């Protein structure tokens, strides 16, 4: 295997491991509870520790396909047909796009449920407009409820859904709620139905970690959790002491893995940059872009190092 391909495989493997650890951390109920308190009206003002108990079962992390016809799976128990999220046959469904995190939440009345989807992005993508993707995801969460949450024409049983997108490395901290509204063009007839069924939350995390105040409370928590700059101890200090989140062993392990992988990605990028500079020097390129006659990296190699770090630090 040539060096370029080998490095690409290593980088992809590290990115995949980082991606997995990041999703596991976001999928911790204690973290999800903080997200719900800041994004879902019914939970605003509540203690996140009380909201944890409202999250049903174990959140599905990178297991439920987004594609139409594959989100649900049917099974039979005691002669009864049951339909739920498709979390089986991962090998058969290999290569499919999956929801990062999806789960049910029991509302405070103890009866109704809502469906929550959390997606993480290293930055705002350039290949497509992210809001369009969010609209597709939230629409799938609505349409896939047929047979799973309601049957035939029982549309009044559709559950409210939230698709929450955490976008890192933004120019500023932000949060927007995208939802349906009614605009009367002629007359003012009150059509029956629920305009609050479909909800998109776009949450932008600035590159710099904000101070801990009420406005940016969630941004600071998620920014610290997903940061590639903070050390393990700095992360755990913010998460544990500032937010009073219990640091269990598996939580600590994933934080450690993320920090180690982040450092490994940076070191690998630097090594690749140096190797590239040496190759350029051997091919007789100008020392400015490779290694000078004394064997020191030129200015172009330094720039290449940084570009490699920027390219490989992204995930999801």
Protein model, in words:
The chain is of the alpha/beta class. It has eight helices and eight strands. The protein has helices at residues 3-26, 29-39, 48-52, 130-143, 217-226, 232-242, 249-282, 299-312; strands at residues 60-61, 72-77, 80-85, 101-106, 113-121, 160-170, 174-179, 198-206. The strands form two sheets. Strands 1-4-5-6-8-7 form a six-stranded mixed beta sheet, with helices on both faces. It has a two-stranded antiparallel ribbon with strand order 2-3. Helix 1 (3-26) packs antiparallel against helix 7 (249-282) and helix 7 packs antiparallel against helix 8. It is globular and about 55 Å long. The two termini are 26 Å apart.
Topology of helices and strands:
Elements: H1 3-26, H2 29-39, H3 48-52, E1 60-61, E2 72-77, E3 80-85, E4 101-106, E5 113-121, H4 130-143, E6 160-170, E7 174-179, E8 198-206, H5 217-226, H6 232-242, H7 249-282, H8 299-312
Parallel strand pairs: 5-6, 6-8
Antiparallel strand pairs: 1-4, 2-3, 4-5, 7-8
Task: Quickly describe the structure.
With 316 residues, the protein is an alpha/beta fold.
């Amino acid at each position: 295997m040539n060096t370029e391909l080998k490095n690409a495989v290593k980088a992809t493997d590290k990115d995949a491991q980082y991606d997995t650890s990041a999703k596991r951390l976001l999928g911790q109920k204690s973290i999800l509870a903080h997200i719900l308190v800041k994004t879902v009206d019914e939970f605003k003002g509540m203690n996140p520790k009380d909201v944890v108990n409202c999250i049903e079962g174990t959140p599905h992390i990178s297991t439920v396909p987004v594609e139409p016809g594959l989100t649900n799976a049917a099974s039979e128990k005691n002669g009864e047909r049951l339909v739920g999220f498709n979390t089986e046959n991962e090998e058969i469904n290999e290569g499919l796009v999956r929801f990062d995190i999806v789960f049910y939440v029991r509302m405070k009345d103890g009866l109704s449920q809502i469906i929550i989807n959390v997606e993480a992005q290293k930055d705002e993508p350039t290949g497509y407009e992210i809001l369009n993707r969010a609209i597709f995801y939230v629409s799938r969460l609505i349409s896939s409820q047929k047979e799973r949450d309601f049957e035939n024409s029982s549309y009044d049983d559709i559950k409210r859904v939230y698709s929450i997108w955490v976008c890192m490395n933004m120019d500023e901290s932000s949060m927007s709620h995208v939802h349906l509204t009614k605009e009367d063009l002629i007359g003012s007839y009150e059509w029956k139905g629920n305009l609050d069924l479909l909800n998109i939350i776009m949450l932008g995390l600035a590159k710099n970690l904000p101070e801990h105040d009420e406005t940016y409370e969630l941004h600071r928590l998620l920014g610290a959790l997903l940061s590639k700059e903070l050390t393990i101890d700095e992360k755990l200090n913010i998460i544990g002491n500032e937010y009073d989140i219990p640091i269990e062993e598996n939580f600590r392990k994933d934080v450690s893995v993320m920090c180690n992988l982040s450092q490994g990605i940076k070191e690998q990028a630097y090594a690749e940059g140096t190797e590239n500079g040496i190759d350029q020097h051997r091919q007789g390129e100008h020392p400015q872009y490779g290694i000078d006659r004394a064997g020191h990296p030129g200015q172009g190699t330094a720039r290449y190092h940084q570009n490699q770090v920027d390219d490989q630090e992204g995930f999801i």
